[in-house]
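go over whats below:
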Amino acid sequence: MNSALIPNLDLRQENVALPLRIDNPNASAVPGRHTHSLVILDNRELDRQCLAQCMAAQKADLQILAFGSIEEWKQKRDEYPPLSAILLNVGGKKIDEPTVSEQIRKLSSEFASTPLIVLADSDDFGQIVRALEYGAKGFIPASVSVSVCMELIALSVAGGIFVPASALFAMHHLLDSSNSTARPLSGIFTDRQVEVVEALRRGKANKIIAYELNLRESTVKVHVRNIMKKVKATNRTEVVFKLNDLFLSGSSAASSLC
């Protein structure tokens, strides 16, 4: 490893100092050149150090900080420029694992004005949607390059939300399949509930559903509650997930709910 790539780091000694702070070696040595900072959270020391070093080479005005936890950052937060974004690297973990989902919820709640972006090995559609549901402002698969990763982080900082193209293709497939697979659900839903199901899968609000189906909004809410009971869902987002599974699986999945 070229020691010139990591300023002020003596490679003849064991590198155990945390957190890792890496400046862009290609940037001019001007004091205070960093206007904001990016915090990488990853409990795997080697992974976060390597990622931080690669990112620092891409962004001269952004100070890259690598920590094992947000608590470590809080202890020294006054030493760094204002926080611009948090990148949570979950690696191969599932978003719906209790420890991961709780971490996303807590970070997105505590740092409501700072975008939390999830970096993961997977680009599974369900995992992406769950991350956004828990409060993440973006989901970046580890298959992208470092330069693309930095651009996507900049997008989130600017107020955008990024998800991989694979997620959009998956949603497109689900919506396209609705016409041919709606009827198998008639075994567990009434005709009116099937119409509400179609609207729910397209992300329509109760008020819009009521207008399009010529119903009262209170009636739509009753239908939604009944649908939730039938698919054993606890919230609206889970309803959509389970309905999509039913549409993909067809009548065999529908019959299992009866």
